[in-house]
Amino acid sequence: MNHYTYADININDLGLVDFSQTITTAANTIRISNDNLFFIIKWWDNQTPTFITDGTIIPVSTMNQTQCLSLMLTANWLTVPY
Length: 82
Known about the structure:
Blueprint: E1 4-10, E2 31-32, E3 38-44, H1 50-53, E4 61-63, H2 65-72
Antiparallel strand pairs: 1-3, 1-4, 2-3
């Protein structure tokens, strides 16, 4: 079991993310939905970023690893290999 929390966030909030508070290290390393409307970040379970706790960014959802992996298997996130 990993000890991360994942968040599905509106792409319009990308500029508000302080990547020094996440395990996702930079905007160019995030996973973006196929429709380019959402992205995923992750952080240690016990270290919720301040931009989440203070309401600067309100995630669409927060998930554990199992839930995030399930989301990645949906049509809007699934990347089909070439």
